[in-house]
Every structure is written in C-alpha cells, then in structure tokens.
Amino acid sequence: MTSSPSGSPSGSSLDLLGIGNAIVDVLARAEDGFLAAQGMAKGGMALIDTASAERIYAAMGPGIEGSGGSGANTCAVAAALGARVGFLGKVAADELGRVFAHDIRAAGVRFPTAPLEGGAPTARCLILVTPDGQRTMNTFLGACVTFGPDDVDEAEVASAAVTYLEGYLFDPPAAQAAFYKAAKAAHAAGRKVALTLSDPFCVGRHRAAFRAFVQGEADILFANEAELLSLYETEDFDAAVAQVRTEVALSAITRSEKGSLVVAGGESWPVAAVPTQVVDTTGAGDAYAAGFLAALAQGKPMAECGRWGSVAAAEAISHFGARPQADLKALVAA
C-alpha cells in the first residue's frame, strides 16, 4: 500500500483492533537438555497436535497460565500505554476460554468474539524458557483455526484507527480470507492496516501469500530482521530494507540488541535498544509493536514511536511472561 502514516483519525472509537490467535499461554522454566530430550528446536515455534500437547504439558515443570497469543499480547501492552484497544480471536466455550476472556478484558481490551460451541478446545501455547532467556514455543491451535470471515466484525474494524493482523493466524485458508475481509473493511472506512510477520518459519510456509498481502493491503509492517530476510529471500539486510520501502508506507524492523529501524518512504530512523537484564524474550516483538502503535495513535514522531516500542520491549523481556509488570506510561515518560 502507498498511503502515508498518521495518528488516529477523528471519529475512530478504537486506536487499535487486534486480530489474532486467542491462546492461553503456559510458561515454565527448562534446561537445554529438556528441549533436546523433547526434540525441540530452541528459540522456535512448533505447531503440535493434541497428543503432543498432553505429553509436553505432563513433562513440563510448574507453569504460569494466562491469556496470550502474539496479537493479544500486543493489545494488552497497548492498553497499558493508554491506547483504546479491541481484540478479535476465537476461543472455545470451555474453562481455558473463560480464562482468556477474563484476562484480556481485565487488561482493558474489548473482546466481543463469540466462543466456539461444541468444537475444538481453546488453544494453548506451552512456552519453555531456558536460563539464557530464550523461549521455545509449542502451540496447540485448537479453536483458533476456526476463526474465519464470519468472525470479522466489520463495525469493529471500521471503528479502529489501525487494525493489527497477527502473522501466526495466517496459516489456515479461512484466516487468510478473514485478513482480506478485515483489510477491505478498514480501507473502506479510511483506516490503516498493520501486519506483523510473527515468525520466519511462518513466512517461509506462506511467502507468496504474505508478499501479496504486504504489497496490496498493508499500510504498516512489523518484522524482525530474520522475518524480513525470509520475506524477500535474501541475506542482505540493506537490500531487504530497500525492497520494503517500495511496498509499504511504514515499516518497523526489530534487530534485538541492535535496536530497530523505522522506515517510511525515503526516510529512516535508527532506534537504540533500551538496555535491560534479559529474563524471558517471550513477547518482545509484540510489546515493541504495542509501544509503537500506542505512540502513533498519539501522533508522535517516527523516532519517538520507535523509542516507545523499545521501552515496551525492554520491559517485556525483563521478567517472566509477556504481559507488562511495570508502569509503562511512566517508563515511556521517563
């Protein structure tokens, strides 16, 4: 898309509407040997079936449970920064579904999606955090995969300045159709569409479809360096940045300890990472997007949007779990 970035337009009742996988996260600490014994690729995300979910859950140490999912995490962090936020995602009418709904609403996020009755159970992500802070995710998608065009509330989309789409949800064909329906509704209402690529393996599975969506529908793109390189099938970061400039009006590319790079048209804004003690990298990219979009909603300059993203990401990785534990408003004001 070739529209220009801006803050929240007048008439929008939400700054941000997230659409993504509604997942209950279960986080536990683990040693590298546990990952090897379970055949897991450290730092990656694997989709697992019911039997694997039960086996891994039984073998894990004590865990912390709470509403999660990449897009939902972004929504919760943005709400903590004062943004007006909603979320669409599918849970089942079961106990974990009620846990998810309660948690996300308690975080200040509007959650109107009706639960799935009589089908697959609510999704859960088994997250193992090694002593170096790396997270390895094993995701059972359950009810998530039933999210489709009928679950896209066009009035909710039209009410939001930015509709934020989670790349992890892109896997099922019904979800891809939902993305296009949401994008059409957003643009018809004069709103923006943001996409996060979520994972380089996800990009690899659906590269052509992602490229088409980025070129045709996305106004704002979030990616880390590995995801961007995968999207454009190159090892040259500068070449990937040059390519994304021609396809998306605004991009924010995170680079771990190197910080991030915000790109719009012919301009670039390098943003330093905020130093912190790394405890758990779960949700770092989600928090960055939240900080960026919360600042954008307030009409902040691009460099300041990136700084808010860096502050939020640093807070996320400084403790166990993806949801904020400190006063983010105070941190970005410091």
Structure description:
The protein has helices spanning 32-37, 50-59, 70-80, 95-106, 154-159, 173-188, 200-205, 207-216, 225-232, 237-247, 284-297, 302-317, 328-333; strands spanning 14-19, 23-29, 45-47, 64-68, 85-88, 109-110, 123-129, 135-140, 160-166, 192-196, 220-224, 250-254, 260-264, 267-271. By secondary structure, it is an alpha/beta fold. The chain has a domain at 14-20 and 69-94 and 144-333: UDP-N-acetylmuramoyl-L-alanine:D-glutamate ligase. Strands 6-5-1-9-10-11-12-13-14 form a 9-stranded mixed sheet, with helices on both faces. A 5-stranded mixed sheet has the order 3-8-7-2-4. A hairpin with a 2-residue loop joins strand 13 (260-264) and strand 14 (267-271). The longest helix has 16 residues, at 173-188. The protein is globular. The two termini are 35 Å apart.
| Annotated CATH homologous superfamily of one domain | Ribokinase
Low-confidence stretches: none
Q: What multimeric state do the chains show?
A: single chain
What is the overall shape? globular
The main sheet comes to: 9 strands, mixed
Please state the CA-atom Rg, rounded to the nearest Å.
18 Å
Please give the number of β-strands. 14
Helix share, percent: 25-40%
